[in-house]
Amino acid sequence: MPAVIRSRRLAVALLATALLSSCGVSTQSEPHAVDLPRRPLTEPQTNAAPEGPTGDVAEVLCMVRDDRLVQTVRRLAAPPTPQQQIDHLLAGPTQAERERDMTTALAGLSVEVRVGDDARAEAEITEADEGSARTDETLAYAQIVCTLTSRADVASVMLLRDGDRLEVPRADGSLSRGPFYGSDYIGLIAPA
């Protein structure tokens, strides 16, 4: 009887192996590239030719429309560094984005970004005219925080000036020295 049980177990094991190997999915020990759509799935299809270079990597930037944050996705050939992504944000909307009424609240700012091992970005902010009062500072800080936290390698952002933490408003108007999260500005994000 033990020989019969062994034979049945062997048959079941061979059948399971055959079924699993015939499903068409091979095992892999390394990750592989996946082809993604050429445009964001949340954005309506347009007939206009894309502006600027296109690629397989999505870069999320938070622009402003009607005093609300709106995400725009640009396609790049290679993943941007956090600094490159902020530089693209500081450059403002493209012509196609301006035609969709996107603007920025970041005029006159420069930002230097460092990301630590703890997934916290430090954004050192300098204004061209330090004495000017900004009426859109909440939107400006929200643009920086939400753009950086759209990255997989950034969980939170510290906003600094001359190495000291800035006390800045969140979407609800409360002041904080951070760290800041994208959720701190969720009330400013326009519905999709």
Notes on the structure:
The chain is an alpha+beta fold and 192 residues long. Helix content is 24%, strand content 23%. The chain has four helices and eight strands; from the N terminus they run αββααββαββββ. The longest helix is centred in the first third of the chain and has 20 residues, at 2-21. The model is unreliable at 36-50 (pLDDT under 50).
Question: From the helix content, strand content and strand pairing, which structural class follows?
Answer: alpha+beta
Mean of all residue-level pLDDT scores: 80
Question: How many whole angstroms does the radius of gyration measure?
Answer: 24 Å
Distance between the termini: 67 Å
Number of extended strands: 8
Anisotropy-based shape: elongated
Number of helices: 4
The largest sheet has its strands arranged as 3-4-5-6
Sheet with most strands = 4 strands, mixed
The assembly state of the depicted protein chains is single chain
Q: How much helical structure, as a percent, in the residues? A: 10-25%
Strand % is 15-25%
Whole-number tally of structural domains: 1
**What is the H-and-E element order?**
HEEHHEEHEEEE
